[in-house]
Amino acid sequence: MEAIILRGIGGFYYALDDAGAVHQVRAQRKLRRDRGKPKAGDRAIITPGEGEEDGWIHELLPRKNELTRPPVANIDVAVIVAAAAAPLPDLTMVDRLMINARRAGIDVMLVISKCDLDAGLAGSIEAQYRGADCSPMRVSSRTGEGLDELRAALSGRVCALAGQSGAGKSTLINALYGLELETGGLSRKIDRGKNTTRSCQLIPVAGGGMVLDTPGFSLLETDVFDPVEIKDSYPEFLPLEGGCYFQPCYHASEPRCAVRDAVAAGDIDPGRHGRYAEILEDMRQRWRERYD
User: Fold this and answer.
1) Roughly how many angstroms between the first and final C-alpha of the chain, as a whole number?
2) What is the percent of the chain with per-residue pLDDT over 90, rounded to a whole number?
3) Do 114 and 163 form a contact (C-beta atoms < 8 A)?
4) Coil, helix or strand at residue 1
5) How do strand 158-163 and strand 210-213 relate by DSSP bridges?
6) Domain boundary among 167, 191, 213
7) Each residue of 213-241: pLDDT tens digit?
8) What is the rounded CA–CA span in Å between residue 165 and residue 202?
9) How far is CA 24 from CA 10, 29, 68, 161, 204, in A?
10) Radius of gyration of the CA atoms of the chain, in A
11) DSSP secondary-structure letter at 186?
12) Of 107, 159, 198, 281, which is the most buried if we count CB atoms within 10 A?
């Protein structure tokens, strides 16, 4: 039968069939060798177990998209969560997550959580992503601000929440859908979020659709690819392509660059462009060292 992988942990997977039953299954060795480990969100052909025996995953159906970190597949929208509070938002991580999602063909949405704690910071984050085609949305799990709008935007879609530990992803899912996922506060010693989500899990939610709760993380690297392609994941750059003196233009330090002119004019946020330049330089270094 066909089923969707909800979660995998310790070599066991939990698959939901079309009738609503969840089966504990394992991946055949040949499957793991040929296709790698199944991911949350994968659609698969399984045989349910009988009695106390586990079932088996025989085949993974073709994926429409996938990510490595977080390890998920067949996602409609990546909901990237940045908190307007401690821990201070790592917007470079946000940008890297956007690059990864867009290169995988996944729609992107930016959610600014805990917006009731620092409205000024929430507004600053929102302003930096104007033109970035990520539908910035302010929400507060405590006050309820923005929850109805976000719930409506995600209705019927398979969405993955990703972002820093402590950004409030699990708390947000609980507030949106009335669930009781484990949540954690902040470590007083290092001012980072306690990582209460330890594996990706796909959760069917009321009103249709599914949500993936993913572990937070404090370090994220994009895959290695030709650095000139990074700019393709910045929607605010695209209308200016072809307007630069040099072709191709990296939009970093080149003279007579339409993107740099837009930054100087205030049409593109300088912080967003500065982080782009950092990511570009990092990718150039990794691209040079890819065969070392």
Assistant:
1) 45
2) 72
3) no
4) coil
5) parallel
6) 213
7) 766 554 556 789 999 999 999 999 999 99
8) 18
9) 12, 16, 23, 24, 17
10) 21
11) B
12) 159
Q: Are 203 and 80 in the same domain?
A: yes
Q: Which one-letter amino acid corresponds to residue 94?
A: V
- The stretch 170-188 carries a mean pLDDT of 71
> Which pLDDT value is given to residue 162?
86
Q: Which of 179, 175, 185, 189 is nearest to 216 (CA)?
A: 185
CATH number of the domain that residue 19 is part of: 2.40.50.140
Backbone φ and ψ for 44, nearest 5 degrees, come out as: -145, 160
Tell me the whole-structure pTM to 2 decimals. Answer: 0.85
What would the two tokens of residue 205 be? 């939610």
Residue 131 lies in a domain: yes
Residue 136 lies in a domain: yes
Mean pLDDT value across the chain: 88
Asked if 65 and 74 touch (Cβ cutoff 8 Å), the reply is yes
Domain hosting 252: range is: 227-288
Q: What is the DSSP string of 56-89?
A: EEEEEPPPS-EETTTTEES-SEEEEEEESSSSPP
- 204 and 99 fall within a common domain: yes
Domain count, the chain: 3
Chain centroid to CA 41: how far? 14
